[in-house]
């Protein structure tokens, strides 16, 4: 892969270069937040880009580290924002893939202690993975006197805006058992909110537990390969004929590189062209996988090429 790595060029592309790139791909994988939409607003042109890619016979998949919603809620969001015909099967969220990992890879026998919200709980339930909600009703108790489940065989950490000290403390207790698996939905450190506000992400919550336990969580979401393996096993996609489109270098672009896909950075989200250029100029070999192959200002830049044959 060394040759492929050194050829990543962070090249701003337009016109015929975009046409050539799209013609060479059968599947396009999109991150959602910062790529397809920002909050409750679709990125301008994104609905037409998705529609026209599908019309051209491309497979379109959505791979998101955002574990806050179950996939059926994503279907509703796509529909609400004007995306036609996005099916649940096209959506690979870190919550869904974590549930698959626990069921099919870990084959967990016992319960999962789940830190997270509705997305994590619903996907575990749909996958028939038995779990204990981090929010069990033990208000007023401390880690010294609260009940602990005897049969917890895995701890899963996802974004949880109702995280409490007691949940973290319980997870620490479960993880004292070296045979208790330790998983994180995704490594995202933080997320942008409206009006310049930010929120800590799953990666920050996981880091607290890693520090407390001296253990390292297995990450399911991007940049880990597992989400791609889920897509490949269900749809048989070829990484060489797939394009990963994302806004975050450390997750989306590294995921594409880890899975053998070409990558396209869009500048409507978290990462900047300057940050990407910083990785191009870095002397550290492991930073080269964070360099996107191509860059566009927005996925709307794909639109003129897709509209050519309309
Ligand atoms: Mg994103």
How would you characterize the overall build of this protein?
This protein is α/β, with parallel strands linked by helices and 310 residues long. It has twelve helices and 16 strands. A seven-stranded parallel β-sheet has the order 1-16-15-14-2-5-6, with helices on both faces. The protein has a five-stranded parallel β-sheet with strand order 8-7-9-10-13, with helices on both faces. A two-stranded antiparallel ribbon has the order 3-4. The radius of gyration is 20 Å and the shape is globular. The two termini are 38 Å apart.
Short description:
It contains twelve helices and 16 strands. The N terminus is likely disordered.
Question: How many H/I helical runs?
Answer: 12
Strand order of the largest sheet: 1-16-15-14-2-5-6
Q: Which fold name corresponds to the CATH topology of the largest domain?
A: Rossmann fold
Anisotropy-based shape: globular
Q: What is the CATH architecture assignment of the largest domain?
A: 3-Layer(aba) Sandwich
CATH class of the largest domain: Alpha Beta
Assign a percent range to the helix content.
25-40%
Structural category is alpha/beta
Order of helices and strands: HEHEEEHEHEHEHEEHEEEHEHEHEHEH
Low-confidence stretches: 1-6
The ligands found in this model are:
magnesium ion
- Give a short account of the largest sheet: 7 strands, parallel
Whole-number count of domains = 2
Q: What is the end-to-end distance?
A: 38 Å
Tally of DSSP β-strands? 16
Q: CATH superfamily of the largest domain, please?
A: HAD superfamily/HAD-like
Mean pLDDT: 94
Rg, nearest Å:
20 Å
Q: What amount of the residues lies in strands?
A: 15-25%
